Amino acid sequence: MGFFNSFIFFSKVHEKVGNEINSQLLIATSQEKLTDVFSSIVVLISILATFYRIPYIEGLFTILFSLLVLKSGIFLIKDSTFALMDVSPGKEIEEKVRKIISSIAGVEEFKDLKLRKAGPLIFGEVTVKIRKHVDVKRAHEIADRIENKIKKEIEEIDSFTIHVEPYESEKVKLAIPIDTNKGLSSEVSKHFGRANYFVFVIVNKKEGKIISFYTKNNPY
């Protein structure tokens, strides 16, 4: 029994460490050690059952052993296949990365966030959008802050590539001079600086639609 207990103990140790560092190799070793223990037990029981002429015991334990091997195989195939298919490591980590990127000053928005798991490591990439007036040096500093903060807070991430694109707002504000305040029905004034009012119109450039508008008196 001490022999079996030692194998089970080391199996649990391998499993715990494997889960902590996200190592499929250690988890697989853990499953292999458990399989060795149960196979030895099946052989021992089979010998005793034959000696004492107990029916069905050998077959029953053989079926249980086969199911254990099948379960371990399916588990390992699933994780290995997901790694090869670039499956995301999980919604929790993905959401954490999103929050980190959104917290960095200078990032207007981001897109195409991709995370993939390769053994105990995670690789990622994202495209961030920064306002056009920001120079190259400043944009590089923003990208470095994103990468450093992500790697610091999520230790499993080994590499994180950041692509920078200029940010263009979908909304634009137009200031139109008018002489009479009739909202959007007002006629455009011929004199910009001497107009009685200004109507400010917020337009969605992508859809070509007016989102909202408001008017103000011309103080000059």
3D structure, described in words:
The protein has 3 domains: 2-84; 91-167, 2-Layer Sandwich (Alpha-Beta Plaits); 171-217, no CATH class. The chain contains 5 helices and 6 strands, in the order H-H-H-H-E-E-H-E-E-E-E. It has helices spanning 2-21, 24-52, 57-84, 91-103, 136-153; strands spanning 109-118, 121-131, 157-167, 171-178, 197-204, 209-217. It has a 3-stranded mixed beta sheet with strand order 1-2-3. Strands 4-5-6 form a 3-stranded antiparallel beta sheet, with no helix packed on it. A hairpin with a 2-residue loop joins strand 1 (109-118) and strand 2 (121-131). The termini are far apart.
Number of distinct helices: 5
Helix/strand structural class = alpha+beta
Strand content bin:
25-35%
Q: What's the main sheet like?
A: 3 strands, mixed
Kindly provide the radius of gyration, computed on alpha-carbon positions and rounded to a whole number of angstroms. 33 Å
Please provide the ordered H/E string of secondary-structure elements: HHHHEEHEEEE
Helix share bin: 40-55%
- Poorly predicted regions are none
Structural domain tally: 3
